[in-house]
Amino acid sequence: MSRTACRAPLLLLLFLFTACRGGYSALDTASPEATRITNLHWLMFWVTGAVSFVVIAALAIALTRRRTAETREGQRRRTRAVAAAALLSTLVLLGLLTASVLAGRAVATPVGPAALRIQVVGHQWWWEVSYPAEPPSETVITANEIHVPVGRPVLLELSTTDVIHSFWVPNLNGKKDLIPGRPTRHLLRPERTGVFEGRCAEFCGYQHAHMGFLLIAEEPDRFEAWLTSQRRPAAEPSDAAGNHGREVFLSSGCVLCHTIRGIGAFGHNAPDLTHLASRRMIASATLPNTAGHLAGWVVDSQYVKPGNHMPPNLLPAEDLLDLISYLRTLQ
Amino acid sequence: MSARETASSREPKEPEAREETERAELARTWHEREGFLGRIVSVDHKTIGRRYIITAFVFFFLGGIEALLIRLQLAVPENRILNPDLYNQIFTMHGTTMMFFFAVPMMLGLGLYFVPLMVGTRNIPFPRLNAVGYWFYLFGGLYLYLQFLGNGGPDAGWFDYVPLASSQFSTGHRIDAWVQIINFTEISALIVAASIIVTVFKQRAPGMSLNRIPLFVWAMLISMVMVIFAMPAVIFTAGSLNSDRTIGTHLFNPAEGGDVLLWQHTFWFFGHPEVYIIFLPALGIISSILSAFCRREVFGYTAMVLALVATAFLGFSLWVHHMFATGLPQIGESFFTAASLMIAIPTGVQMFCWIATIWGSRPRWEPPLLYVVAFFLLFLLGGMTGLMLASVPMDLQVHDTFFVVGHLHYVLIGGALFPVLGGLTFWFPKMTGRMLSRRLGFWSLGFLFVGFNMTFFPMHELGFHGMPRRVYTYLPDKGWNFWNLVSSIGTVVLAIGVALFLVNVLKSLYRGARAPENPWGAETLEWATESPPPVYNFLRLPVVASRSPLWEEKELPFVTGLALDRREVLVTGALDAAPSHREEIPGPSPWPFVASITMSVGLIGSVFNVWWLPAGFVVSIPPAVAWYFTEEKP
């Protein structure tokens, strides 16, 4: 169904939410949880829609009927009608309550030990993602891009280092807040492969608008391959430009905040860049990961995301080009 | 003094001359001075109520301008008209202004103006205190906007979640301004609440037993009782944040054993009832308009009153539905789902009763009635989306998205602003002695209705498509562009509607047709005196024998025996309104104004140095004492 076609009922019916499908939406579901919630939504939608229709119809009739004298019998009839309507609404509400509680239980199904554990830490304004492992040196740390296998429940352990954020991938499940001092857990069970967008839903300061991430659901073997590649330390530069770029990284402000495993950069205030080039987007799913955007971001990230915590880096042109070409090799 | 002595309907009509002397005497006793000084010392409930209404409208325009700026910024993706710093201040100011400086004070103003008239008394019981309430409200608003103009507007949302609003993440005095204005607005609301509650319980016209109180008065009364329970919660919670920020307590700091969720609980324990504090008076307005234009009493009086009471009770047990995403225990959340759904029952009952009122009454199609119809349509939709938000799993999807922005505006604009505008259209003749233009009234309502739906209906769609609230911009590839543009264009239509309303008011103020005492043929006591009412409200205090005194066939009986040369009101019993005694109430005084200034200076100064607070307190003692010991004799 085309977007325009499915918007038509919106203009016609008073209380319709359109059923546009596709893309980044809570109605285009890719997990049992999201499907359950969407079904509940449509149930509530049709029930409340019907109730609204009846009430408005009654109002319209009431407004246009001819005047009748107040009689005792008329009073009695109206009393009965109001009582019946109140009783009926109570029953409808009880029905909705039951549906809601059942859906709530289904969505909150506890998961077994088979679930994949991923730690997500919210920062102003980016997401730190880590895959704990034994031994701890095998732990994979990345940022703003969460890879998960299809067909295996994923248990996210959510926490934050600063203010409250909220984790939300509309296609997969509802929201869960990241609250200082109160770790929370969130369940994701993607049923199909795909790249799903997510973002922060709780107001968290200047760049709340640009605190997105990608959730990439893939076949288990591809996921394992990705995990293996992410475990490796950073790739060695293969040419002079790359070598110089690494020198620039280590001798400029970058190293104070960013980590690149294998080259002695251990900053912990900003995204881990060990495999930066493998990621699709930069700046919390704000810009595509291309050389041009990367260079612009390094030089003046404040233009793209005013107020973010990365200072401008006024590097000489040659240094900048080499730095970018080095970062582009970090597959 | 018993009812039989005071009520004397059968006395022969007195000579005109005697009526004129009484009128002159009362006018002298209740005289309010003209001019600037007169305005400062005034204690008349109508003057102060009118001030609340006008000031609230000024803030409504300021908040509206902020809303237009927000929509201007969001009209197209990656807009750079506002930077995030300014945008965050503006959306915080919009919410703060509309909730604390428009919606609640508007209801307070309507209550102050009409409750004493509707219950048939001369003034509220604590007129000087009431003057303080208004000054506090005004000074709080001025302070907030002065600081905003100096780039110091609060920027953590009107809800000020910690730790974003804590001193660690919000340095400077922006949040402190928000914290202080809570004191100003809530003290003002508490003062009005006390005044209105005592007026309703102790100063009703003889014969106006509990089951004869007009529904608007019931709604105001219950709303004011809610104020008394809800406002201390926000004063406490804002005070706690203040002490965290200024003297280093750690109530909300998890690193020191504090809890950030404590803020959300205490804030929403106030924040959700706040919605009903705004909404209940609006329901009262609907009842007033409907009975006047359907020319019959609202159907199911007892059910209506009980529904208001039930709404007030339930309104205090819903606050957690703002916090479903915080990971509270599921069983607890289900309780709040049940309570949130349940509140639809009393509201539904009221809607059914109104429809039953209209049924077979062939109402007159005047602008106020159309506002009621608009209220029905919009509030119904807001209520239905409210049911969705009450459900935990549904809420987890749409929480903190534009869906909620759509919902809350349908509830607050549809459920409160439309009734208020309808009510102002309805009561304008009473307040000014002039009729509003009927044609302009229809036009402004038309623009408001179309513009409102254009602005806020698309937001539901945006919410489902994942657009979070409180974002200063968005990327162009999300599929949000079209509906955001529609919404922004809608605000222009909406603004035209508001402007037409304003034009209508200003034009009618000078050129409107003269209004008679009771232009709509309504039934309650405010229509039993001149338009606008004289400063003493009623030449002779009325006595009522039914719910619709002005629809009785015989002329309204009245009270005799009140002194004409002193500001006397009749105190009656709380249940059956039997006359109990005469009470003299204080007249104009400059000291409430002076005391408000000294206290305000102390409160505002404490933002910058905590010692201003005790200093302001000490300096306020002399005016308070002077206030207590001085009585201006007419």
The residue-averaged pLDDT of chain A reads: 90
Tell me the β content of chain B.
under 5%
Reading the helices and strands of chain B in chain order gives HHHHHHHHHHHHHHHHHEEHH
**Gross geometry of chain B:** globular
CA(first)-CA(last) distance of chain B: 26 Å
- Work out the number of β strands of chain B: 2
Beta-strand content of chain A:
15-25%
Strands of chain A, count = 14
H/E series of chain A: HHHEEEEEEEEEEHHHEEEEHH
Arrangement of strands in the largest sheet of chain B: 1-2
- The proportion of residues forming helix of chain A, as a percent range, comes to 40-55%
The 3D shape of chain A can be described as elongated
Count up the helices of chain A. Answer: 8
Largest sheet of chain A: 5 strands, mixed
Structural class of chain B: mainly alpha
Summarize the structure in words.
The complex is a heterodimer of chains A (331) and B (634). With 331 residues, chain A is α+β, with helices and mostly antiparallel strands. Chain A contains eight helices and 14 strands. Chain A has helices at 3-12, 32-64, 72-107, 220-231, 240-251, 254-257, 291-304, 317-328; strands at residues 116-123, 126-131, 140-143, 145-149, 154-160, 165-168, 176-178, 184-188, 194-200, 212-218, 259-260, 265-266, 281-282, 287-288. Residues 1-21 of chain A have low confidence and may be disordered. With 634 residues, chain B is mainly alpha-helical. Helices cover 65% and strands 2% of the residues of chain B. Chain B has a two-stranded antiparallel ribbon. In chain B, strand 1 and strand 2 form a beta hairpin. In chain B, helix 13 (367-390) runs parallel beside helix 16 and helix 18 (591-608) runs antiparallel to helix 19 (612-629). The longest helix of chain B has 36 residues, at 84-119. Chain B is globular, with a radius of gyration of 25 Å. Chain B starts with a helix and ends in a 5-residue tail after the last helix. Mean pLDDT of chain B is 93; it is low at 1-10. The interface between A and B is large, with 88 and 80 residues.
